[in-house]
Amino acid sequence: MSVMKSFLVDQNGYYGEFGGAYIPEILHKCVEELRVTYKEVMCSEAFRKEYGQLLRDYAGRPSPLYPAKRLSGKYGCKIYLKREDLNHTGSHKINNAIGQILLARHMGKKRIIAETGAGQHGVATATVCALMGVECIVYMGKTDVERQHVNVEKMKMLGATVTPVTSGNMTLKDATNEAIRDWCCHPADTFYVIGSTVGPHPYPDMVSKLQSVISEEIKVQLMEQEGREYPDWLVACVGGGSNAAGTIYHYIDDMRVRIALAEAGGKGVDSGMTAATIQLGQTGIIHGARTYVIQNEDGQIEEPYSISAGLDYPGIGPMHANLAARKRATVLPINDDEAIAAAYELTKLEGIIPALESAHAIGALKKLSFKPEDVVVLTVSGRGDKDIETYLDL
Ligand SMILES: *Cc1c(COP(=O)(O)O)cnc(C)c1O
């Protein structure tokens, strides 16, 4: 262990050759302020206490670790589901939103901005802003505003201002650019809440630490149920990578634990309609970090596609790029049809309707081979209520 380099972030904000902070000069002060502050605040007694209480009493943690008997029977191993779908607002995103908005308060920032694609991160952020009584502005591509009407209405009811973005393809990438632009204009009073393990350092590390409560709980829950605190396999889906980062955080350097990550294959990795960033991406810069990006020969970022809005991102967190490059993780592209079939399978076998994103993780089970005694922990990142129309349309 001592000679092995950790898979966690290094002192300079890198995961191997990935990560860093590639930002315009005007943002330098904001990012630097966050970099020198986040660890100290997050380690403080006051923050830990407040964060822990809100996770418990508001978000509903710990989320159960459920032994899925019928699913286990089907795959010939022992599968536990980490039930992030049971959190308030329906996914793991609330863990991060509570943490970052608490941090913003400790830093004296009065205005919260966020980007959102499908609207899940926007809703989580607007929820916590309502709870804490702070101003909230959510940037959302105009295409997504139209596609995700219910989430837009929720954010408005929660008191947030939803600003439709009309540049580019009017989706997540464009909303992120607009949020960054806002941050540049209001560096003194504004905190930018990023929804995944992406963006310039320290965001990927900060978000993975906030989500690491997932693997902290898995350790305790496995000890209770299995008499050992580590599984043989961890399985999670990856969009930007935050639910996966939380799931693996406390096991990342434990080589007894194998890691499988499911990314969105869309209509197929070679179809031109995909978000399989790790399979197809080349090293580049996206939203302030050096990582794998789906881009054309000129280095232009290509528009990604997935049936699942939460996985529809042309980049990937730098932590995950490094895990893939160093073969620490097995990365499996799961196509739309495979994810849909997996969602039906989980629903019929266990009575759990998963989010489309989470269904990609279920879909990965078929592509892995297990021994009967293997203990597998799969994170169900969110619930499927938001996806019912998609499921029924097919
Ligand atoms: C946003 C979202 C994801 C993808 O984001 P990560 O940062 O990769 O976790 C996955 N599942 C659900 C339910 C989501 O809302």
Q: How would you describe this structure to a colleague?
A:
The protein is 42% helix and 18% strand. It is of the alpha/beta class. The chain folds into two domains: 15-55 and 92-206, Rossmann fold (3-Layer(aba) Sandwich); 61-91 and 212-393, 3-Layer(aba) Sandwich (Rossmann fold), CATH 3.40.50.1100. A hairpin with a 2-residue loop joins strand 1 (14-15) and strand 2. Helix 2 packs antiparallel against helix 4 and helix 9 (203-211) crosses helix 11. It is globular. The protein binds pyridoxal-5'-phosphate (PLP). Pyridoxal-5'-phosphate binds at residues 91, 93, 120, 196, 237-244, 310-311, 355, 357-358, 381-382.
Could you write a compact summary of the structure shown?
The chain is 42% helix and 18% strand. By secondary structure, it is α/β, with parallel strands linked by helices.
List keywords for this structure.
alpha/beta, Rossmann fold, 2 domains, six-stranded mixed beta sheet, 16 helices, 42% helix, binds pyridoxal-5'-phosphate
